[in-house]
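Section 4.2 – Deliverable D4.2 (structural model, holo form)

The reporting period included a commitment to supply a predicted holo structure for the target in complex with heme C. Inputs used:
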Amino acid sequence: MSARAHWWAMAVAIATPTCAFASPPSGAASCLGCHAAAGAESPVVPLSSLTAEQIQSAMQAFRSGTRASTVMDRIAKGFTDEEVRAIAQWYARDRAK
Ligand code: HEC
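Output (structure tokens):
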């Protein structure tokens, strides 16, 4: 088990009870451990306040290091482009309505 896998298991364990939605794409629930639901007071921006494009481009910038971060670089490296796209569309789903 790598340190990163252990870290993820913790993040998922923390985030799971706060996730009120059915069947999010793989990995999406773990974001809510730090990114609160829309409207909640949090220093970390709620993901549902962003468009899918904003989430995807931010994740790519964190992964490549072109955008500075404290934790998101490591998190972004744990997802493929396809996974990021699915997660981004899931969080942005309410905006399309
Ligand atoms: C351990 C806490 C943590 C987790 C888990 C986490 N984030 Fe973040 N996220 C942050 C922080 C803190 C920032 C601000 C940038 C930084 O310092 O890394 C951030 C910034 C972002 C931004 C940029 C928002 C903006 O201002 O434009 C996006 C997009 C994002 N995260 C997406 C995600 C996604 C998608 C997931 C789940 C796969 C996730 N985050 C999981 C803590 C977290």
